[in-house]
Amino acid sequence: MLEILKRELNISIVTSIVYVILGIIIISNPEATLSIVGTVIAVLAILYGIIVSIINIANIKEENTLVIGILLIVMGIALIIYPNSLSVLISLGIGIWFITSSVTRIKYSVILKDVPEVNWVVLLVGAIITLIIGITFVFAPLASAVALTTFSGVMMIIYSVIDIVEIILIKKNMKEIEVVFK
């Protein structure tokens, strides 16, 4: 059992180092990362669309999935032509979600202003901040996508560094851990 733990820790160190490198690449070039992700999703959509279409054509008795297959192929081709469009659509979706959510929260904070136990001003300020972020996502979707991508890279690095520190601590105390597994 202890050998399995040691092997898992070594694999985890290698994985964490790869994530740190990947995080640095993402942070250093978020636009290219978005473009690559868009292209990969486009290729997968095209392949899946072709598979769905072939299955539908080969098996006439199946429900009509040919339309879905063709739509996936067209969507994949559009994403190859415009690889950043996916990130723009995702940013627009997040922005609209933030806006609708914050408007509802503004409404609730105003309703709750007469309840003395609730700090409605904090709720209102949080909702207004969320509204501003949502508006930013809608009116600057590509910049928002780049910011989210950069943030993801930073989070990958932080996670990986924490993971490496934990592994070092576990390896440092391996004799004590050995007792637990015996």
Estimated share of beta-strand residues: under 5%
Quickly count the helices: 7
What percent of residues adopt helix (DSSP H or I)?
Answer: over 70%
Uncertain residue segments? none
Number of strands: 0
Spatial extent as radius of gyration: 24 Å
Mean pLDDT: 87
What oligomeric state do the depicted chains represent? Answer: single chain
Could you walk me through the main structural features you see in this protein, from its secondary elements to its overall organization?
This protein is an all-alpha fold and 182 residues long. Helix content is 87%, strand content 0%. The chain contains 7 helices and no strands. The longest helix has 32 residues. The radius of gyration is 24 Å and the shape is extended.
